[in-house]
Amino acid sequence: MSEYVGEQPFAALDSALEALWQRLGRAARDRRAAWHTPVLATVGLDGTPQARVLVMREANRAGRLLRLHSDTRTGKVREIAAEPRVSLLLYDPGARLQLRLSGLARVETHGPIAERAWADANLFARRCYTAPLAPGAIADGPVSGLPPELEGREPTVEESLLGRDNFSVVLIAAERLEFLHLAVTGHRRGVFDWDGEGNRWSGLWLVP
Ligand SMILES: Cc1cc2nc3c(=O)[nH]c(=O)nc-3n(C[C@H](O)[C@H](O)[C@H](O)COP(=O)(O)O)c2cc1C
């Protein structure tokens, strides 16, 4: 159970904003946190909504930045290049707390953030990026997609480098955070929009 069960943080906008960013930070650090695996929604190249689960890697409140990882060759990467407006959906059933986060995404394959993330990735994580064919390519049967010699084992550091160009970071600059907290004593819903001129989040209560 979470420290946010109960409505205390959601009795005031300031504490709600604080609680949301704390939870986002924990989602990145703690793989058991419900928010560790948000749903990323993009606009498909044909306009169809596209949603999928990703792992939250970092939440930086000062920079309003969320970091996720992806294979460079995926649909989401092409979609973000065409339309950077994305949404992240997070729900914690224990805390009965939903967050709809929207913002502007960009993909970086090289550069300091991607280099650091690759350096921090363990060898099994790096192995995911060594597949010769792009994720989503049609397969001739039930396949992992990995090079046969890497099936069932950890790659060496050198072998893991095969995946380097297929590894990218997805960075989302948050523009809007909308929460819904369910409680028998009264649901609470609020929204924070980033005010670039005032350099601050501007919050409003909404009817749940
Ligand atoms: C628990 C879980 C965690 C996942 N984490 C990631 C991830 O961190 N990055 C990623 O690109 N895909 C991740 N996936 C796979 C995606 O959901 C998706 O299937 C894949 O990225 C292809 O999506 P796309 O073709 O829409 O780009 C994860 C799937 C699950 C079920």
Task: Describe the structure in your own words.
Helices cover 21% and strands 35% of the residues. It starts with 12 loop residues before the first helix and ends with a strand. The protein is elongated. Strands 1, 2, 3, 4, 5, 6, 7, 8 and 9 form a nine-stranded antiparallel sheet that branches. It has one domain: Roll (Pnp Oxidase, Chain A), CATH 2.30.110.10. It is α+β, with helices and mostly antiparallel strands and 208 residues long. The site of flavin mononucleotide has 15 residues, from strand 2, strand 4 and helix 2.
* Global morphology: elongated
Secondary structure category: alpha+beta
**Cα separation of the termini:** 23 Å
Q: What is the average of the pLDDT values? A: 96
Helix amount:
10-25%
Poorly predicted regions: 1-7
